Amino acid sequence: MPEAVRIRRGSPQLKSILNYIDGKFVCGPREFADVNPADGCVIAQVSEADEGLVDQAVGAARKALRGEWGRWGIRERAARLHKIAEAIEKRFDCFVSAEVADTGKPVALASRLDVPRAAANFRAFADLIKTAGLESFQTETPDGRNALNYAVRKPLGVVGIITPWNLPLLLLTWKVAPALACGNAVVVKPSEETPATATMLAEAMSDAGIPDGVYNVVHGFGANSAGEFLARHPEVNAVTFTGESQTGAAIMKTVAASVKPVSFELGGKNAAIVFADCDFEEAVNGISESVFLNTGQVCLCAERVYVERAMFERFVEALKRKAESLRIGFPLEKTTELGPLISAQHREKVLSYYRLAREEGAVVVTGGGVPQFGNELDHGFYIQPTIYTGLPESARCVKEEIFGPVCHVAAFDTEEEAIRLANDTKYGLAASIWTTNLKRGHRVAQQMNVGITWVNCWFLRDLRTPFGGVGLSGIGREGGVHSLNFYSEPNNICVRL
Ligand code: NAD
Ligand code: 6OH
């Protein structure tokens, strides 16, 4: 099998990233550039799939369902999923370097979060599919006899998986693993910004003995490109998507014509509530991580921080010190804590919010601009971690998802007010609550209008738990048995006894 990411002839630095269809790397008719956000250099040319190639990928997936993959039982599939996890770990350093080059995220972060989670995703769903049962009911009939109802899981068929650039391999495998555990074949469309690791995963699939056509990769963009071609393909049985809420709306329109199930993990404008009775240091560190991790490019990041008035100034000062101490730099430097944003275009969007915040009357506590390095990092898409105070709750910067290393901190006086402010959003993905009062922690958590609430922690994940959002933050839940329920169709069998 050819290498997933190849050095292009005549240009030793430039790689070529291809589509992967039916176990082969395939060129499309056009190419686009893959840019390293840390220095703005083109690191690869990516082959874009046209509608014909997307159709071939879907056809390969359909064929795989009719082949040995479709005949394997749960035990065999689960064993192969464990092998995929091992194959990822075998290539750990390659996955880390590719993810760092594509996203600009710090090598320390990719090594501790993205790549280990990719392997963990396969292990978690391999184990779960072996133990997850479905309900059964003994039904009494009017004539005094009985019937037995039980359900079995059937794969959906071909699943289209469309993913974003912020945690590319983590979020892709979060969907591929349960889809394969349930016996589906998949066609994935990774973000055009981060095509490398989805392509490298093809090699891990091959190492693990996953039959050709079960895992296919098509590269390209969204509208009128591979993303849309995949979503509207009549032979795709379901679409699972992670990305912006507006994109979710567009995909929903596209799939409506062929009526398929969708699972959407979308944007957020997440709140954190910090009570004066919190463990101060734990809260400052936790909020700092929840605002700045991955340069604020995690859907779960807090962009609205509500702090009890009694300690507002002390907290803002401590968070400012923390933000100013974050080490911005080369992603491959082990001590780097903050990398660049994903692209020049995304930095322009975040900077437009930095400008808007000032127009809306914000007090700039720290940041608000672009750092200067005096070296090649000045060509990267770096931005300062930024904290604002003083905005009215109606400000666009308090209402709209920015997706950068930025938060607005506001004071509150009562628990009721904090809950009202946190819930005053069209989104509803995640919240965090910081208090040492156990009863208050539970009480407030249960009133959060979101899919995921953390108390005295953030982004602490157990893969068996439901994950998703309410409102503009998504449709449905994935995680644990929720994923199995999305990626399979129950067939209820009623047997007259
Ligand atoms: P995006 O919506 O721009 O793109 C995501 C994917 O959708 C890409 O692969 C893109 O090519 C594709 N796409 C775009 N338009 C399409 C269309 N019309 N039809 C089919 N496919 C299309 O998102 P992004 O900028 O890559 O990621 C950032 C966003 O993702 C943020 O809003 C963030 O909150 C959200 N996100 C949410 C979660 C979650 O779990 N809720 C996780 C990560 C990111
Ligand atoms: C969004 O950017 C992060 C999503 C995280 C997950 O989906 C997960 O499973 O941890």
Low-confidence stretches: 6-12
> Mean of residue pLDDT?
96
The set of bound ligands, ions and cofactors reads: nicotinamide-adenine-dinucleotide, (2E,4E)-2-hydroxy-6-oxohexa-2,4-dienoic acid
Structural Rg: 23 Å
Structural class of the secondary structure composition?
alpha/beta
- Calculate the terminal CA-CA distance, rounded to whole Å: 54 Å
Give the spatial strand order of the biggest sheet: 16-17-18-15-14-19-20
Biggest β-sheet, characterized? 7 strands, mixed
Rough shape? globular
Report the portion of residues in β strands: 15-25%
Instruction: Count the E strands.
Output: 22
The share of residues in helices is: 25-40%
Number of helices: 16
Q: What features would you highlight for this structure?
A:
497 residues; alpha/beta; 7-stranded mixed β-sheet; 6-stranded mixed β-sheet; 22 strands; 22% strand; binds nicotinamide-adenine-dinucleotide; binds (2E,4E)-2-hydroxy-6-oxohexa-2,4-dienoic acid
What's the SSE blueprint?
Blueprint: E1 5-7, E2 15-17, E3 19-21, E4 24-26, E5 30-36, E6 41-48, H1 51-66, H2 68-71, H3 74-90, H4 92-103, H5 107-131, E7 136-140, E8 146-155, E9 158-162, H6 168-181, E10 185-189, H7 196-207, E11 215-217, H8 226-232, E12 238-242, H9 245-256, E13 262-265, E14 270-274, H10 280-292, E15 302-308, H11 312-325, H12 344-359, E16 363-366, E17 386-389, H13 396-399, E18 406-412, H14 415-423, E19 430-434, H15 438-445, E20 452-455, E21 474-475, H16 480-486, E22 488-496
Parallel strand pairs: 2-6, 9-10, 9-12, 10-11, 12-13, 14-15, 14-19, 15-18, 17-18, 19-20
Antiparallel strand pairs: 1-2, 3-4, 5-6, 7-8, 8-22, 13-21, 16-17
Helix pairs in contact: 3-5, 3-7, 4-5, 5-6, 10-11
